[in-house]
Design a protein that fits this description.
By secondary structure, the chain is mainly alpha-helical. The protein contains seven helices and no strands.
Length: 212
């Protein structure tokens, strides 16, 4: 008679979607809060009139633009992650570690944002910021592939649903890549283009459906 093999730890570890979602919500909240803390008011000593304040706010506007871009970036990826969780009936160890790696990229976002806001005219700063966005996109795509291949869906996972999710990720990352290439001409063009792409995905769902 063959002896029954014991249950391996890796087979039972990291199965709670609820705990993983809770950890994700907390880390996204921290990252978004740190973004706000990096915004600083103009120096009081340099403001002596309404016009001084107005000019100081204009000088601050690029940093506010970078902050807005990062807030939209994190918001879009948070929605994307929650969409995946909605179609997942359980997690496993591998799926959990994929998302912990994804959350590491989320935590790096305040650093890459501050770097870009401080050195907004430098291409290397924009390149590092874009690599951060690419890492988020790749990990979301990898995690969804893992859900499709290895995890059970809460509902019947229709082919068109899976295709729509993958297509959205690929198109968004392609547009971000084009936006990053614009920094070869002007980093402000890159910032403006990526902001427009994110606003489209965030507040214009009809047009977004046509894109992906």
């Amino acid at each position: 008679m063959k002896k029954k093999k014991g249950t391996a730890y890796n087979e039972i570890a990291g199965q709670s979607i609820e705990r993983l979602a809770g950890l994700s919500d907390g880390i996204f909240a921290v990252a978004m809060t740190v973004l706000v803390l990096d915004l600083h008011l103009p120096s009081v000593e340099s403001i002596h009139s309404e016009s001084d304040l107005w000019r100081a706010l204009i000088r601050l506007s690029p940093q506010v633009g970078v902050f807005a871009m990062s807030l939209l970036t994190l918001s879009i990826f948070w929605v994307g992650q929650q969409t995946q969780f909605n179609y997942c009936s359980k997690a496993d160890r591998n799926f959990t570690w994929i998302h912990i790696t994804f959350l590491l990229a989320v935590l790096i976002m305040p650093f890459s944002t501050k770097l870009l806001a401080t050195f907004i005219t430098y291409r290397i700063a924009f390149a590092i910021y874009w690599v951060n966005m690419v890492a988020l996109g790749i990990l979301v795509y990898v995690s969804w592939n893992y859900v499709v291949k290895h995890l059970h869906a809460k509902t019947v996972l229709l082919h068109d649903i899976s295709t729509a999710i993958k297509k959205r990720i690929i198109i968004a990352q392609s547009l971000y890549a084009f936006g990053a290439l614009l920094c070869l001409v002007n980093t402000y063009w890159s910032l403006g283009f990526i902001l427009l792409v994110q606003l489209n995905y965030a507040i214009a769902p009809k047009f977004s459906r046509r894109l992906g």
